[in-house]
Amino acid sequence: MLGKKDMADFDRPGDLNTIIGKGTFFEGSIKVQSSLRVDGRVKGSVSTSDSLIVGKEGEIEGEVHVKNAVIGGKVRGKVHATGKVVLEANSRFNGELKTAKLVIDEGAIFEGVCSMGQEDGKASVGERLADGAKSLIGAPKEETPVTQKK
Question: pTM score, two decimals?
């Protein structure tokens, strides 16, 4: 669960004006101007200008575009967050995640791929290395052709 310090990182999210309640199933595309809480099931595209909160019993299957996300339930698909994503204990994520900051609590399950970087135009570590840096652990390196001596 988020403490006071963690909530400060969310830049004071806007009003929570949309809730998909427990027992509700929504299929399609939903775009919310502020924050969204999902305690039911959503299949499709979700887009919010602020924060997404997925409750313990909430489920999302599809593509998600948000500023910040707190996931306590299940998410399967692609998540694109310009800010921070928190996977709470007992949450489950399957898919592709792109975010600036990621917190995975003990007990959360993450299956998939994660890409982290700045959205403000700054080059990522991999891009900087390709421009001439010698090496960093785990960084991509240029391949040199191997020739056999006879």
Answer: 0.70
pLDDT tens by residue, 21-70: 999 999 999 999 889 999 999 999 999 999 999 999 999 999 999 999 99
- Cβ-contact 118, 124 below 8 angstroms: yes
**pLDDT digits over 114-136, tens only?**
999 765 444 444 444 444 444 44
Q: 137 in a domain, yes or no?
A: no
Give a yes or no: residue 146 inside a domain: no
Residue 95 lies in a domain: yes
Adjacent-strand bridge partners of 102: 85
Q: Are 110 and 87 in contact (CB under 8 A)?
A: yes
pLDDT band at 16 (very low <50, low <70, confident <90, very high): confident
